[in-house]
Give the backbone structure.
Amino acid sequence: MKSNFDKGIDILKKKKMGAVASIVRGLPLNRYMTFYSEGYNLYTLTSRQTAKVEELEKNPEVTILFGHEALFNHEYLEYRGKVSFSSDKKIIDEMWSPSMAKWFTGKDDPDILVLAIEPVKVSLLAFNRRDAFDIDFTLPMPACVSG
């Protein structure tokens, strides 16, 4: 049987799209974005010219929901993290798809920006149970897991 920690990793690998909530002018704003994950670290691409970049410079904290498929019997993740900015070519290469030509001239477009999201707290939840499996990344790893 897989550990809850590994179940969370599996959700991030399988569910490339998440609903991202950030705070804009004191109010929550949600948007869907696609992600690439390495363990619990997340990456997504955006344009330097978007309002999203300015918003995240002011408040880099986000919450992302992953994995909701049906009303009951499915686990999902509530991911709280902190955004930083990068131009990492490896991540751009990993995430690039032809559909991005709508927004960028190519992989070397200077407007491409990598949003790197470092986990702060991740919760594995399910609609059919009350308990949550939490990973608090602000604590030393052996003490961070609760259920």
In short: Helices lie at 4-14, 51-58, 89-95.
